[in-house]
């Protein structure tokens, strides 16, 4: 197992280098740079050139990629934000934590609901419930999640206009005066703010995930060994649970890793609408300000997390599936 | 060699559809497609939506960039069909805006003194009201000038019979600029509905080319392309798309160029999956007898790839294209919603929804519900494309048939 893990980790290196190089290339392809906004400074015409020299923006772009890579690999230093003038790591970490607070419950909830739904649909193929669930997931697939979040926001405001108290918060992660709260109060407060965003992210990924589950379960149910199990007279329940479900779970585990990018993207637009202080709002403002190191750091960290997520789900698969040799 | 593409498919499909043995691929696909009632309904709805978008100038009562700063967030005009209990020709009333001095919100009052009947097929001949009708308006302006095409049209499907042009009919109200939302939905559909098709075409061309090269040559070409695809797919789509859009959005490009750049950005995030799938298919196809035979007869590599191998992946391409289009439609709406996609004065459904994000958070759902309608339009377009894609998949893929 250990050599397999090490081999897989080494395999990640070229992917990581290519991905960050491509990301860097895209960021540098944007016209102008951070210093451009000072180019027409009336008082100090050389301000832009000076800022470029200070920030090292006057070096060629591929050299700056190498400097960046050296700093990341050797010193775990993701650079300095040009707008906030602080370390990018210090800027990103709390937001990263906030995003995880939203993403993890949503992912767990989505899978916890999708797996039973998919299994049920597959076992009762073309039944009334299955058809209803199919219609539901088709509708769910078509609703953009930022629109769902907008509707939720508007509904919340509507509720307030009507009853003059807030069923859900209108946005953000904490209420005013949060720092004075007791620990329990803080947890409850964040939890209350979580309900809306988590519900939206879960709902919008539920449709797709439950479809995948249904498909995988159907695929498993059509295998020869299921027919064999049935024909040797095993009770239906044993066939479904012991033979079908256990094997379908394998595919689901493998799927969790590959579903992460879509979940991160989906949570991103919900963060934007609900004002959740996560990484996507920061990414957008950094893109508008051409704060390249912040953009780069966000892309790098998320890419790294996704690669590790994929690796973990592959390892889990290798552990529970005896057919996989490593 | 046109039926080279059909042989394997009809062979595989033979047990399920023995009655149509010998039929061409398109024939079988059409037979199967007709068994899918939802997909047929979706096809009809999509056809209507594309017609509305194409002839938006005709169906919309007001011209594309018509705004009115005095009539922002005007609620939908009520169209009356009954006059004192009798059915009459539909008519509308004029509306006046006043400010409620207590809450400082605008209040719209209906002036029932005078009824203005609606008219069908009205001509609006004002200089700003004229428009270039559909098939002509896709020719670039410069080319039109060179060719000497000066087509103008003045006809609209409906309008208010008001000589002073003060009373307007807004079936879905107006937005923050006082533009007619009903018309804007159709003008926005021109971008929102075509961007998916064009982006999926571009991504399929890139994907087939790259996948074809990788699958056919193998070796280090395969390794490079695969690594590149893997690296691109490691970055989450939304983040990659947002970063890509930063290349072109600060340039203040003309809206046509902006439109093309968005298509390219969408294609960049989508070609990888297609390239991977095409590569996988080619790996097995290139060992098949007909490919070896073509090679033995002296066909060049490029010819074998483009004329013999890639046509075999045709049904896969059709299906994956119809399933990619709704994804791209959604991606464009997200991008425009963030303000990094389509820029005003051009409009798309996502951009229209960003208005809802900016203004509706304070007033709630019921008081300005009509600015949420672009979301319903996105929903409908994505739903129908998905249904159509499901129908096509069942039609072309014998394994997914019931």
Helix tally of chain A? 11
Order of helices and strands of chain A: HHHHHHHHHHH
Q: What is the CATH architecture descriptor of the largest domain in chain B?
A: Orthogonal Bundle
The structural class of chain A is: mainly alpha
Biggest interface pair, counts: A-B, 53 and 47 residues
Helix tally of chain B equals: 15
Name of the CATH superfamily of the largest domain in chain B: MetI-like
**Major sheet attributes of chain B:** 4 strands, antiparallel
CATH class of the largest domain in chain B: Mainly Alpha
Overall tally of domains of chain B: 2
Low-confidence stretches of chain B: 1-18
Whole-Å distance between the termini of chain A? 7 Å
Termini distance of chain B? 31 Å
Short key terms for the protein model shown above:
heterodimer, A: 326 residues, mainly alpha, 11 helices, 0% strand, B: 402 residues, alpha+beta, 4-stranded antiparallel sheet, 11% strand
Note down, in words, how this protein is organized.
The complex is a heterodimer of chains A (326) and B (402). Chain A is mostly helical. In chain A, 76% of the residues lie in helices and 0% in strands. Chain A has 11 helices and no strands. In chain A, helix 5 (128-142) crosses helix 7 (183-221). The longest helix of chain A has 39 residues, at 183-221. By secondary structure, chain B is of the alpha+beta class. Chain B contains 15 helices and 4 strands. Chain B has a 4-stranded antiparallel sheet. In chain B, a hairpin with a 4-residue loop joins strand 2 and strand 3. At the A-B interface, helix 1, helix 5, helix 6, helix 9 and helix 10 of A face helix 8, helix 9, helix 13, helix 14 and helix 15 of B.
